[in-house]
């Protein structure tokens, strides 16, 4: 039956739209599995519109698309989305098209999978037909919970499309023969429902039945379990998993080879690693700690000097910081790999001749020639949570039978819960795995094949170029990852930890770092590039009143808004300016009240009070969620409570920003408060109020910029 299907039709078009590489990785997995099913996936980035043409496409189309920002399609899909949203296209424009779509998103954000939903809805409006139900994968609980079964079912759906297509071409007798064989052999039809990712019968490289291999290993792990370890952990399983035969992913074929060269030459400039825009290397001229030492989170404000560049921005924009991996972690990884002496050697990465990987190509984020340490420092996300395909590859690099079995469990269908709990939710990275499984000795080419690109980190501007020409300020919390059983060491965020270390001399100057004038002579520089925000800006009409809601460091972009508004008021005294409201919340008044009182570096920031006194800010409402109160009527603890209390929704323009760890609940809480007030003020039920809020969003009068 399989061969007959393959003879009928083989090719399908596979498009992906990715922001950080997830959608591309899943598309590559689909392409790899397609070969095992006798199918050929013609894979392209959705932005490569010169390499495919949906207007004339006759084969089925599979689309994998992520979501970025506040529900936008990824940058790589912008041109495609703009093209299909052309209002002059007729409703039967894609009537010939059959497609299946897999959307990726995070339900902690308001517009879950909106990138995929936008494309899906528009294709439907233009007459395209589903040959397979749309899948929406949630990164909040684990993409694999939807991705794996969606891919499993894709192959049968594609086979059916090919059979129907051939039937339309007049080969009904051939189809009848196939149908008869399916009816006469239901067990074969059942096999179509098996995951193509899973190989029940054999491990490719060992050429034996996997169930036999894993059952044999079961003896070793069961002995460990019976010794009194009743709780599972990263390195240990318990029944029933420890006694189960496993369905494990197919072994990904290796496709790269790494050749060590000499130690002579120069590494590429960081700008060559970025394709999204022009990079600028700018000095950090000021660093201020905005919270007390005993605050739960440490917030820093950095000031960059952009005077000698053409970098421009508006308040509300964001920008990217190019950051390296932690130097100690890179050295530790080199040591474990036995490559400590090779760090400064230049390496050449090439596609391996004869590789079985379909469409194997040199990774775009790996320089043609650079040192090994440069690759591990600037190119690869060594903190990335390992995907199951990576775990499957690590199995073959592990010599201890018990460790090998546990890695097989963690990447298996039966071990999905353990993977989620001990790897994904625990934020385990490659270093953690190599410590936990010391007999695992992966090759360098394996790391380059499986570790994703080190992404630049995005931050919101908290200043105004009009108010402070040549300066760019931003605020961030230093991200902390606490130690846990699966990861015995605590870590700081890749970028925030690096920035904090970089500006430490500015935060805690010593006599050696001060020049004769009392200033700091540090000239540390960072590389940045623009990430324009086309919607999160001040209203074009200055007379329109607006509200701002910013818990925690979410207040920082609004400082830029208010600075900009203050400068406009000074320069245009004849203009009419609308009222401005700022709702701000933090945990403790004496520890976390950002931009109120900062004694560090003898610098006092009292901007909010200044904005109130000069009329730039009309109303300031502040609440503290963790402070106790002895008042007879307790003050509101959260910004949504203050909004409800004040009933301040008589405006037609809202700006709403969240920069908070619990992004879903805070975002939902404020939205719920707005709905409640709309319902009360406009005397409508909650459903109607939600429709009004949706209308405001559509008209860009209620804006969200939600980041974790």
From TrEMBL:
**Which cellular component, as a GO term, is one annotated location?**
cytosol
> What InterPro entries does the record tag this protein with?
CysJ-like_FAD-binding (IPR003097), FAD-bd_FR_type (IPR017927), Flavdoxin-like (IPR001094), Flavodoxin/NO_synth (IPR008254), Flavoprot_Pyr_Nucl_cyt_Rdtase (IPR001709), Flavoprotein-like_sf (IPR029039), FNR_nucleotide-bd (IPR039261), NADPH_Cyt_P450_Rdtase_alpha (IPR023173)
State the Gene Ontology BP annotations: homocysteine metabolic process; methionine biosynthetic process
Q: What is its EC number?
A: 1.16.1.8
Keyword list (alphabetical) reads: Amino-acid biosynthesis, FAD, Flavoprotein, FMN, Methionine biosynthesis, NADP, Oxidoreductase, S-adenosyl-L-methionine
Q: Does the keyword Ribosomal protein apply?
A: no
- Domain (Flavodoxin-like) spans 12-155
Cofactor(s) recorded for this entry are: FMN; FAD
Domain annotation FAD-binding FR-type: ranges: 277-539
Tell me yes or no: is Amino-acid biosynthesis among this UniProt entry's keywords. yes
The record's GO molecular-function terms, alphabetically, read: [methionine synthase] reductase (NADPH) activity; flavin adenine dinucleotide binding; FMN binding
> Which PANTHER family did the record assign?
METHIONINE SYNTHASE REDUCTASE (PTHR19384:SF84), NITRIC OXIDE SYNTHASE-RELATED (PTHR19384)
Q: Mind telling me what this protein is named?
A: Methionine synthase reductase
Native species: Opisthocomus hoazin (Hoatzin)
